[in-house]
Design brief:
alpha/beta; seven-stranded parallel beta sheet; 13 strands; 383 residues; 15 helices
């Protein structure tokens, strides 16, 4: 089976899935087509230019033979996946019956009012709805993608659970990791962590409001916050106004490996973004690090990956609802450990690139034979 994945440029969230495709179908049968150079500001932030690092990448933006190969693969590949790629037309492929998947987060992040945007309606028809009876399917990188597509006339039954699949850490003894977390905090001071850019829809103010209420009720804890962004000064001033300097520590930006180290040392992970968070790979990473997670239900990955009261806790209202979930975990060390262990198993056994690729190849074979997915949950199950 030949598989080609089209996107803007190779990044650390797509690399694990690409390496698994290589492992399963071989170097000659998998290509990643990049239609953009990595942006200079990403290089400035320390990201690597992965387009230049891996031989399976076809740099279509260079033109010439690379662009011609990208166009040929669009027609000739057995299976094509199209992510954030703007320059590769697929109409001819689909009209010829070529098995094709789009790979998208939700479309109505800013609200359902966009349903009345005539330009968006036309674009959604051209890209999706007009192919409702063709061999086009959706890999949903959000639990809300299928719902949004249905509103624009694309069949929900052609949508499958997918997502982003960061590298998975395998621990020989997950029990030892949980003990390590407790030793970093001790039973009197629970360790909380928040990671993200300081921007409005990630709501970095919420953990501070939670911390303020916890302090006022006499709880002992520490909260580390990793990230930078335009709200940094506002967040700093909010911490000062609540007099929480001795409880909340702003750690700034960190390389991914150091973020994972902080996750390994933290018992509770707070994920406070709203529906602007298409997927949210920090959920994968924090669960993989055996954190007990409290997360907003509106985040794209949460309804797929987080099982409320099993491997984490969801909140659906405002920060006060999030606070109630955090307090449940602070009051129960055993529950923190139980959810941390379950979260690790969720990622190590199900929501990882290796499992996703095996399932995807099975799904492709089934669809080619006029059958359906055999999976009832996890990657490649019905969205």
């Amino acid at each position: 089976m030949t598989i080609t994945f089209y996107s803007n440029f190779l990044n650390d969230h797509q690399l694990p899935i690409c390496l698994e495709f290589l492992k399963n179908v071989g170097e000659e049968n998998f290509h990643f087509v990049a239609d953009e150079r990595i942006a200079p500001d990403r290089i400035a932030f320390g990201f690597e230019d992965m387009n230049e690092m891996y031989p399976f990448v076809v740099k279509a933006y260079e033109g010439g033979q690379s662009e011609e190969l990208a166009k040929r693969l669009m027609i000739d590949s057995d299976v094509v996946i199209i992510g954030s790629s703007k320059n590769m037309p697929y109409k001819e492929r689909i009209n010829k019956g070529g098995l094709t998947f789009r790979y998208n987060e939700r479309f109505l992040k800013s609200g359902d009012y966009r349903l009345f945007d005539l330009r968006l309606q036309l674009n959604m028809y051209k890209e999706f709805s007009c192919y409702r009876n063709k061999s086009l399917y959706m890999l949903c990188a959000s639990a809300y993608t299928s719902r949004d597509l249905k509103l624009f006339g694309f069949p929900k039954e052609k949508c499958y659970k997918w997502g982003y699949f960061p590298f998975v850490y395998q621990y020989e003894d997950i029990g030892a990791l949980l003990i390590k977390k407790n030793s970093y905090s001790n039973t009197k001071e629970v360790s909380l962590l928040w990671v993200g850019r300081f921007i409005d829809w990630k709501h970095p103010e919420i953990p501070i409001k939670i911390a303020n209420k916890l302090v006022r009720e006499g709880y002992k804890f520490k909260l580390n916050m990793i990230g930078i962004g335009p709200m940094k000064e506002q967040i700093h001033n909010l911490i000062k106004s609540y007099q929480l300097d001795n409880v909340i520590h702003l750690l700034g930006a960190m390389p991914p490996a150091e973020v994972r180290k902080e996750m390994e040392e933290s018992e509770i992970f707070l994920f406070t973004s709203d529906k602007g968070e298409g997927w949210g790979a920090v959920l994968n990473e924090s669960l993989n690090s055996a954190c007990a997670v409290v997360a907003n239900h509106s985040i794209g990955s949460v309804p797929f990956v987080l099982n409320h009261t099993v491997n984490g806790l969801e909140y659906k209202k405002n920060w006060k609802d999030a606070y109630k979930q955090v307090k449940i975990l602070i009051n129960s060390p055993d529950l923190r450990k139980k959810m941390g262990r379950a979260g690790y198993e969720t990622i190590s056994k199900t929501w990882n690139a290796s499992n996703a690729v095996v399932r995807f190849i099975c799904l492709c074979n089934n669809l080619k034979n006029g059958q359906e997915t055999v999976y009832v949950d996890g990657p490649c199950s019905k969205a």
